[in-house]
Design brief:
315 residues; alpha/beta; Spore Coat Polysaccharide Biosynthesis Protein SpsA, Chain A; 2 domains; seven-stranded mixed β-sheet; 10 helices; 7 strands
């Protein structure tokens, strides 16, 4: 099979018939063998009934329905697990992603050898309250990940099948699928300018809180990718450094007290020096950080995935 199209959706009943007909037209015009996988993320409208009706029109549709709303990342994860096509395309169900982009995305994967191609909605039909935070978000993601993409969160992407089978999309990590792919060893990541359609039906399902959550998820992903299997390298380093600063401050305080005793002046108290409190705080923090690293190592070494590595080929 050439292509699997994974479409997560939530309350998109109005757009589904038009989207399906558009995809089928593009697939038939280009003579692709394909499947469409709808993932209903707990919709409360009649989206599932519409999907059942669509499925009755042909054998190219598969569908999953969540019992409740889990989010886009779980929907993509379940869709990826079931995808059989050599190339996997993801797109949103709100008609803002154009199926006409699929042939070129497929070509970039199949002929140019990209592991992943991300869409870039260079011209967007969104208000400034959304576009400006998006630009800041993408700039931060580029800095942390080292991947030169303009639009990390574009729903229209293409992947080799092996990529989606070797990444785990969880929580709200769908925003960072290119970063997840890079962490898993898939480094040939490309970008294609795609058309952004104005929303035709319904309302957006994402609020401004996604930008705050997105930054927190990015920090988490960056930290776990660098130190997830070696926590002592970060906690132990900073813990040792803090302890040494505190120990140095303590030596200074004791030395000054000893000098005052030798000179016969017993009035200065150790607790009068700010270095006493610096030493106390720094040594406590240093000890706690070191213990955090030690506990992290114990947890990491008992993880069932501690020796899970991405093997590309074997003879």
């Amino acid at each position: 099979m050439d292509i699997s199209i994974v479409i997560p959706l939530y309350n998109e009943a109005e757009s589904l018939p038009e989207l399906y007909e558009w995809i089928v037209r593009v697939m038939n015009d280009n003579h692709f063998s394909y499947e469409i996988i709808f993932v209903d993320d707990g919709s409360v409208d009649n989206s599932w009934e519409v999907i059942e009706k669509i499925q009755g029109q042909g054998l190219d549709v598969r569908a999953i329905k969540f019992r409740r709303n889990y989010g886009k990342s779980p929907a993509l994860h379940c869709g990826f697990q079931r995808a059989k096509g050599n190339v996997v395309i993801t797109m949103d169900a709100d008609l803002q992603d154009s199926p006409d982009e699929i042939p070129e995305l497929y070509r970039m994967i199949a002929e140019e050898g990209y592991d992943l191609v991300s869409g870039w909605k260079k011209k967007r039909y969104d208000p400034f309250s959304k576009t400006i935070p998006t630009k800041l978000f993408n700039a931060t993601a580029r800095k942390f990940s080292g991947i030169c993409l303009h639009d990390f969160n574009c729903g229209l992407k293409a992947y080799k099948n092996i990529v989606v089978k070797n990444i785990e999309v969880y929580n709200d990590m769908h925003r960072y699928i290119p970063y997840l792919a890079k962490i898993s060893g898939f480094n040939k990541i490309g970008e294609k300018i795609v058309q952004h359609q104005a929303r035709k039906y319904g309302v957006t399902k994402f609020g401004l809180n996604r930008f705050v959550n997105g930054y927190l998820d990015l920090i988490t992903l960056w930290f776990t990718s660098r130190f997830g299997k070696k926590p002592m390298h970060i906690f132990g380093l900073w813990g040792s450094l803090m302890f040494m600063i505190g120990f140095g401050a303590l030596i200074y305080v004791l030395t000054m007290k000893l000098i005052s005793i030798i000179s016969g002046d017993l009035r200065p108290l150790v607790t009068n020096s700010p270095y006493f409190y610096i030493s106390l705080t720094a040594m406590i923090l240093g000890t706690q950080l070191f213990l955090a690293g030690f506990l992290g190592e114990l947890i990491s070494r008992n993880s069932p995935k501690r020796n899970h590595y991405q093997i590309e080929s074997e003879l």
